[in-house]
Amino acid sequence: MRNRHGAGPRRITVALMMLASLAFAACGDDDEKSASEGGGGSSSAAQTVTIKATGAAQAPNFEVTGEVKAGAATIELQNDLEKGAVDGQLVYLAEDHSDEEVAAELGKAVQGKPVADWFHGGGGPGQAKAGETSSVTQELKAGTYVVASGEGKPKLPLAKIAVGGEGGAEFEPPAAKVTASEYAFSGEGVKSGEPVLLENGGGEWHHFLAARLKPKATIADAKKFLMTEKGEPPFAGEGGEDGPDEENGIESTVLEGGVSQAVEFTG
To answer: Residue ranges of the domains in the chain?
Structure first.
């Protein structure tokens, strides 16, 4: 559920440019450094939830294992697709709705259309390539989360994470953080190899994209490319136009306002 362009009062807003500037600066101007997504754990007693993806990347099958109580949870996405990347986007359901109703809202979200008030961007692990695993640590609320990744029509029944009442560990955010608001980002204390908190402090939905620059490329080059999507991508690694690769960048899932998650920058 990743839409780069959309409109409406409850839309997925992807503010790439300013985060790119921040992340490059936060991870250092040294061209030898990179930023990548690893196991972002910040709560030692966090429960573990595993999401296994199989089938085709366009409409993958998901299997969820692990019993969870409300509180800190490390969510791992295991990509067992033959080829292609996938993320572990979660949607939190504030009310009980049928899979068909949820799937209809997913279709709206992908197209950038307004979604129902009960349909919330709940984070989840970022993109993992075939044969690889990505993970995040975040707080899960009591209720139901749906795994909502894939570009095509989701397969029914939808994979769900049922989160019970209180009993999980308290989420302990790392000191370093990057905060998103409406087309503005701020950060503090970000260091290579250490956990960092990605938090949405705005009212719209945001996701985070950071990538290492190629040698001699500048932040101005990154801003120009992200605004126009024309010319040679200034980012290092294999990600290119589709985003950073796992050794040179990070792309999170969609976070609604007030949602945060811990990931790790390495390099």
So the answer is: 16-265
